[in-house]
Amino acid sequence: MTAQLDTSRADGAPQIVPRPAAVATGPILEGRTLTKSYPLGETTVDALRGVSLSVAAGEFVALMGPSGSGKSTLLQLLGGLDQPTSGEVILEGEVISQLSDDRATRLRRDRTGFVFQSFNLIPLLDVSENVALPFTIAGQDTSRGEIAERIRDVIELVDLTGKEHHKPDQLSAGEQQRVAVARALVTRPALLFADEPTGNLDYTTGTEILDALWRSCEERHQTIVLVTHDSKAAAYADRVLVVRDGTILDTIELGRRRDHDAATLIGRLAQLGL
Protein backbone atom coordinates (compact mmCIF):
# COMPACT_ATOMS: atom_id res chain seq x y z
CA MET A 1 0.00 0.00 0.00
CA THR A 2 1.07 3.57 -0.42
CA ALA A 3 1.48 5.91 2.50
CA GLN A 4 -1.46 8.25 3.02
CA LEU A 5 -1.33 11.85 4.13
CA ASP A 6 -2.25 12.12 7.82
CA THR A 7 -4.38 15.23 8.13
CA SER A 8 -5.25 14.59 11.77
CA ARG A 9 -2.27 16.59 13.03
CA ALA A 10 -3.19 20.17 13.78
CA ASP A 11 0.04 21.27 15.45
CA GLY A 12 2.08 21.47 12.27
CA ALA A 13 4.51 18.80 13.47
CA PRO A 14 6.33 16.55 11.00
CA GLN A 15 4.80 13.10 11.16
CA ILE A 16 6.52 10.39 13.20
CA VAL A 17 4.76 7.62 11.33
CA PRO A 18 6.85 4.80 9.80
CA ARG A 19 6.48 4.77 6.05
CA PRO A 20 5.31 1.41 4.69
CA ALA A 21 7.82 -0.54 2.63
CA ALA A 22 7.60 0.29 -1.07
CA VAL A 23 5.54 -2.13 -3.11
CA ALA A 24 4.91 -2.19 -6.82
CA THR A 25 1.44 -0.63 -6.89
CA GLY A 26 2.25 2.25 -9.19
CA PRO A 27 4.45 5.33 -9.25
CA ILE A 28 4.96 7.42 -6.14
CA LEU A 29 5.16 10.59 -8.26
CA GLU A 30 3.64 11.51 -11.61
CA GLY A 31 3.66 14.57 -13.81
CA ARG A 32 0.96 14.55 -16.47
CA THR A 33 1.22 16.85 -19.50
CA LEU A 34 2.81 19.65 -17.48
CA THR A 35 3.15 23.08 -19.00
CA LYS A 36 4.49 26.27 -17.46
CA SER A 37 4.37 29.65 -19.17
CA TYR A 38 5.64 33.03 -18.01
CA PRO A 39 4.77 36.46 -19.40
CA LEU A 40 7.78 38.37 -20.71
CA GLY A 41 6.81 41.81 -21.87
CA GLU A 42 4.28 41.36 -24.65
CA THR A 43 5.30 37.75 -25.27
CA THR A 44 5.00 34.45 -23.37
CA VAL A 45 7.88 32.14 -22.51
CA ASP A 46 7.02 28.43 -22.45
CA ALA A 47 9.36 26.95 -19.83
CA LEU A 48 7.71 23.52 -20.01
CA ARG A 49 5.79 22.10 -22.96
CA GLY A 50 3.64 19.12 -22.06
CA VAL A 51 6.05 17.09 -19.91
CA SER A 52 4.91 13.71 -18.57
CA LEU A 53 6.94 11.44 -16.30
CA SER A 54 6.66 9.01 -13.42
CA VAL A 55 8.96 8.02 -10.56
CA ALA A 56 8.76 4.67 -8.76
CA ALA A 57 9.15 4.34 -5.00
CA GLY A 58 12.81 3.89 -4.08
CA GLU A 59 14.04 5.10 -7.48
CA PHE A 60 16.86 7.61 -8.04
CA VAL A 61 15.98 9.79 -11.03
CA ALA A 62 18.08 12.63 -12.44
CA LEU A 63 16.69 15.53 -14.48
CA MET A 64 19.60 16.68 -16.59
CA GLY A 65 19.93 19.52 -19.04
CA PRO A 66 21.70 22.80 -19.75
CA SER A 67 20.84 26.08 -18.07
CA GLY A 68 17.42 27.28 -19.21
CA SER A 69 16.26 23.84 -20.34
CA GLY A 70 13.35 23.78 -17.87
CA LYS A 71 14.70 21.17 -15.43
CA SER A 72 14.54 23.37 -12.32
CA THR A 73 11.08 24.59 -13.29
CA LEU A 74 10.01 20.96 -13.58
CA LEU A 75 11.40 20.17 -10.13
CA GLN A 76 9.54 23.12 -8.62
CA LEU A 77 6.27 21.83 -10.06
CA LEU A 78 6.92 18.25 -8.98
CA GLY A 79 7.80 19.42 -5.46
CA GLY A 80 4.73 21.61 -5.13
CA LEU A 81 6.77 24.81 -4.90
CA ASP A 82 4.95 26.23 -7.92
CA GLN A 83 1.75 25.52 -9.83
CA PRO A 84 1.69 24.37 -13.48
CA THR A 85 -0.05 26.44 -16.10
CA SER A 86 -1.76 23.19 -17.09
CA GLY A 87 -1.40 19.51 -16.28
CA GLU A 88 -1.30 17.58 -13.02
CA VAL A 89 1.27 16.57 -10.39
CA ILE A 90 0.31 13.49 -8.36
CA LEU A 91 2.18 12.51 -5.19
CA GLU A 92 1.10 9.28 -3.50
CA GLY A 93 -2.34 9.54 -5.04
CA GLU A 94 -2.85 13.23 -4.17
CA VAL A 95 -3.22 15.67 -7.07
CA ILE A 96 -1.05 18.31 -5.41
CA SER A 97 -1.38 20.74 -8.29
CA GLN A 98 -5.10 21.06 -7.41
CA LEU A 99 -4.82 21.33 -3.62
CA SER A 100 -5.46 24.49 -1.65
CA ASP A 101 -2.36 26.36 -0.51
CA ASP A 102 -2.76 25.05 3.06
CA ARG A 103 -3.13 21.40 2.04
CA ALA A 104 -0.32 21.66 -0.50
CA THR A 105 1.94 23.15 2.18
CA ARG A 106 1.05 20.34 4.61
CA LEU A 107 1.67 17.65 2.00
CA ARG A 108 4.96 19.22 0.96
CA ARG A 109 6.12 19.52 4.58
CA ASP A 110 5.06 16.01 5.61
CA ARG A 111 6.02 14.04 2.51
CA THR A 112 8.89 15.82 0.77
CA GLY A 113 12.38 17.08 1.56
CA PHE A 114 14.53 19.57 -0.35
CA VAL A 115 18.26 20.15 -0.75
CA PHE A 116 19.48 23.19 -2.68
CA GLN A 117 22.83 24.67 -3.71
CA SER A 118 22.75 26.95 -0.68
CA PHE A 119 23.21 25.09 2.59
CA ASN A 120 20.84 27.39 4.55
CA LEU A 121 22.21 26.34 7.93
CA ILE A 122 21.64 28.41 11.08
CA PRO A 123 25.12 29.70 12.12
CA LEU A 124 24.38 29.68 15.86
CA LEU A 125 23.18 26.07 15.86
CA ASP A 126 25.43 23.02 15.89
CA VAL A 127 25.11 20.01 13.56
CA SER A 128 22.55 18.16 15.69
CA GLU A 129 20.49 21.31 16.22
CA ASN A 130 20.47 22.16 12.50
CA VAL A 131 19.40 18.61 11.62
CA ALA A 132 16.68 18.74 14.28
CA LEU A 133 15.30 22.05 13.01
CA PRO A 134 12.08 20.67 11.39
CA PHE A 135 11.08 19.19 14.76
CA THR A 136 12.25 22.19 16.78
CA ILE A 137 10.13 24.53 14.67
CA ALA A 138 7.15 22.27 15.40
CA GLY A 139 7.80 22.57 19.15
CA GLN A 140 8.79 18.94 19.64
CA ASP A 141 11.35 17.57 22.10
CA THR A 142 14.39 16.53 20.06
CA SER A 143 16.49 15.29 22.98
CA ARG A 144 14.89 11.89 23.51
CA GLY A 145 12.83 9.11 22.01
CA GLU A 146 12.39 8.39 18.31
CA ILE A 147 13.23 11.92 17.20
CA ALA A 148 16.65 11.81 18.91
CA GLU A 149 17.21 8.39 17.36
CA ARG A 150 16.38 9.73 13.90
CA ILE A 151 18.80 12.61 14.31
CA ARG A 152 21.63 10.27 15.29
CA ASP A 153 20.74 7.94 12.42
CA VAL A 154 20.90 10.54 9.64
CA ILE A 155 24.08 12.10 11.05
CA GLU A 156 25.65 8.66 10.83
CA LEU A 157 24.28 8.21 7.29
CA VAL A 158 26.09 11.35 6.09
CA ASP A 159 29.32 10.42 7.91
CA LEU A 160 29.27 13.24 10.46
CA THR A 161 29.30 11.15 13.65
CA GLY A 162 31.64 12.86 16.10
CA LYS A 163 30.86 16.34 14.78
CA GLU A 164 27.39 16.68 16.28
CA HIS A 165 28.39 19.75 18.31
CA HIS A 166 30.37 21.55 15.60
CA LYS A 167 28.96 24.87 14.37
CA PRO A 168 28.72 25.48 10.60
CA ASP A 169 31.84 27.68 10.58
CA GLN A 170 33.81 24.72 11.95
CA LEU A 171 32.80 22.54 8.99
CA SER A 172 33.99 22.34 5.39
CA ALA A 173 31.58 23.27 2.59
CA GLY A 174 30.98 19.60 1.87
CA GLU A 175 30.24 18.86 5.52
CA GLN A 176 27.80 21.76 5.65
CA GLN A 177 25.96 20.39 2.64
CA ARG A 178 25.87 16.95 4.28
CA VAL A 179 24.18 18.57 7.28
CA ALA A 180 21.60 20.00 4.87
CA VAL A 181 21.07 16.52 3.39
CA ALA A 182 20.61 15.04 6.87
CA ARG A 183 18.11 17.75 7.76
CA ALA A 184 16.11 16.97 4.62
CA LEU A 185 16.12 13.23 5.42
CA VAL A 186 15.38 13.36 9.15
CA THR A 187 11.60 13.56 8.68
CA ARG A 188 11.79 10.48 6.41
CA PRO A 189 10.08 12.11 3.43
CA ALA A 190 8.47 10.02 0.72
CA LEU A 191 10.46 12.04 -1.81
CA LEU A 192 13.71 13.97 -1.63
CA PHE A 193 14.24 16.69 -4.23
CA ALA A 194 17.81 17.89 -4.77
CA ASP A 195 18.37 20.95 -6.97
CA GLU A 196 22.03 21.19 -8.05
CA PRO A 197 23.20 20.15 -4.55
CA THR A 198 26.84 19.97 -5.70
CA GLY A 199 26.76 23.19 -7.73
CA ASN A 200 28.80 25.17 -5.20
CA LEU A 201 31.27 22.38 -4.43
CA ASP A 202 34.44 21.03 -6.01
CA TYR A 203 34.47 17.55 -7.55
CA THR A 204 35.77 15.65 -4.50
CA THR A 205 33.44 17.40 -2.09
CA GLY A 206 30.51 17.02 -4.46
CA THR A 207 31.16 13.29 -4.62
CA GLU A 208 30.69 13.11 -0.84
CA ILE A 209 27.19 14.58 -1.22
CA LEU A 210 26.26 12.27 -4.08
CA ASP A 211 27.55 9.26 -2.13
CA ALA A 212 25.32 10.25 0.82
CA LEU A 213 22.28 10.62 -1.43
CA TRP A 214 22.97 7.30 -3.13
CA ARG A 215 23.36 5.50 0.21
CA SER A 216 20.02 6.88 1.38
CA CYS A 217 18.45 5.43 -1.77
CA GLU A 218 20.28 2.09 -1.69
CA GLU A 219 20.16 1.44 2.07
CA ARG A 220 16.99 3.30 3.13
CA HIS A 221 14.94 3.01 -0.09
CA GLN A 222 14.67 6.79 -0.28
CA THR A 223 13.12 8.09 -3.49
CA ILE A 224 15.23 10.89 -5.00
CA VAL A 225 14.74 13.34 -7.84
CA LEU A 226 18.01 15.15 -8.62
CA VAL A 227 18.37 18.18 -10.88
CA THR A 228 21.84 18.64 -12.35
CA HIS A 229 23.71 19.84 -15.43
CA ASP A 230 26.67 17.58 -14.56
CA SER A 231 26.87 14.16 -16.21
CA LYS A 232 29.07 12.81 -13.40
CA ALA A 233 26.39 13.70 -10.87
CA ALA A 234 23.57 12.35 -13.06
CA ALA A 235 25.46 9.04 -13.37
CA TYR A 236 24.54 8.27 -9.75
CA ALA A 237 20.91 7.92 -10.84
CA ASP A 238 19.09 4.77 -11.93
CA ARG A 239 17.52 6.73 -14.77
CA VAL A 240 18.30 10.06 -16.41
CA LEU A 241 15.66 12.23 -18.06
CA VAL A 242 17.32 14.62 -20.49
CA VAL A 243 15.47 17.94 -20.56
CA ARG A 244 15.86 20.42 -23.40
CA ASP A 245 13.68 23.33 -24.53
CA GLY A 246 10.98 22.50 -22.01
CA THR A 247 10.51 18.88 -23.07
CA ILE A 248 11.99 15.50 -22.16
CA LEU A 249 14.30 14.80 -25.05
CA ASP A 250 15.34 11.30 -24.00
CA THR A 251 15.30 8.79 -21.15
CA ILE A 252 18.58 7.00 -20.40
CA GLU A 253 18.32 3.83 -18.29
CA LEU A 254 21.48 3.28 -16.25
CA GLY A 255 20.25 0.90 -13.55
CA ARG A 256 21.44 0.71 -9.95
CA ARG A 257 25.23 0.61 -9.97
CA ARG A 258 27.89 0.94 -7.29
CA ASP A 259 30.63 2.34 -9.53
CA HIS A 260 28.59 5.35 -10.83
CA ASP A 261 30.65 5.33 -14.01
CA ALA A 262 29.52 8.11 -16.34
CA ALA A 263 30.88 6.68 -19.63
CA THR A 264 27.57 5.22 -20.83
CA LEU A 265 25.71 8.42 -20.02
CA ILE A 266 28.33 10.67 -21.62
CA GLY A 267 28.31 8.52 -24.76
CA ARG A 268 24.53 8.74 -25.06
CA LEU A 269 24.57 12.50 -24.47
CA ALA A 270 27.15 12.85 -27.24
CA GLN A 271 24.80 11.01 -29.60
CA LEU A 272 22.10 13.54 -28.66
CA GLY A 273 24.48 16.41 -29.43
CA LEU A 274 24.78 17.50 -25.79
Structural description of this entry:
The N and C termini lie far apart (40 Å). With 274 residues, this protein is an alpha/beta fold. Strand 9 and strand 10 form a beta hairpin. The protein has nine helices and ten strands. It is globular. It has a six-stranded mixed sheet, sandwiched between helices. Helix 5 packs across helix 6 and helix 6 runs parallel beside helix 7. It has helices spanning 71-78, 101-111, 127-131, 133-137, 145-157, 173-185, 203-220, 231-234, 263-271; strands spanning 29-40, 43-55, 60-64, 86-91, 94-95, 112-115, 191-195, 223-228, 239-244, 247-253.
How are the SSEs ordered, and which strands pair?
Layout: E1 29-40, E2 43-55, E3 60-64, H1 71-78, E4 86-91, E5 94-95, H2 101-111, E6 112-115, H3 127-131, H4 133-137, H5 145-157, H6 173-185, E7 191-195, H7 203-220, E8 223-228, H8 231-234, E9 239-244, E10 247-253, H9 263-271
Parallel strand pairs: 3-8, 3-9, 6-7, 7-8
Antiparallel strand pairs: 1-2, 1-4, 4-5, 9-10
Helix pairs in contact: 5-6, 6-7
Q: Nutshell version of this structure?
A:
The chain has helices at 71-78, 101-111, 127-131, 133-137, 145-157, 173-185, 203-220, 231-234, 263-271; strands at 29-40, 43-55, 60-64, 86-91, 94-95, 112-115, 191-195, 223-228, 239-244, 247-253.
Give me some keywords for this one:
single chain; 274 residues; alpha/beta; Rossmann fold; four-stranded antiparallel beta sheet; 9 helices; 31% helix
Number of strands: 10
Rg estimate, integer Å: 18 Å
Give me the CATH superfamily. P-loop containing nucleotide triphosphate hydrolases
The strands making up the biggest β-sheet line up spatially as: 6-7-8-3-9-10
**Shape assignment:** globular
Distance between the termini: 40 Å
By CATH reckoning, the class would read Alpha Beta
What is the overall pLDDT average? 87
* Number of structurally distinct domains: 1
| CATH fold assignment | Rossmann fold
Low confidence ranges: 1-24
What is the string of helix and strand elements? EEEHEEHEHHHHEHEHEEH
**What class, by secondary structure content?**
alpha/beta
Q: Percent of residues in beta strands?
A: 15-25%
- Describe the largest sheet: 6 strands, mixed
If classified by CATH, what would the architecture be?
3-Layer(aba) Sandwich
**Number of helical stretches of at least 4 residues:** 9
Which percent range fits the helix content? 25-40%
